[in-house]
Amino acid sequence: MVVELKWDRPVDAAIGQIKARNYPAGLNGLGGECVLVGITYHDGGDVHECSIERIWI
After folding, report:
1. 41: helix, coil or strand?
2. Which SS3 state, helix, strand or coil, does residue 15 take?
3. pTM of the model
């Protein structure tokens, strides 16, 4: 599992950063499924958004 947190940014930006910087590459050799989780928190409250994607490595 790879998790990226953002503050006051679109939740797609978190998943985009995981993919752009190829964070799952650190898990190469393990094989199987990897879960990408992007979470963004918004200023002024307890509101957050989450996006989850599954990939095979």
Report:
1. strand
2. helix
3. 0.86
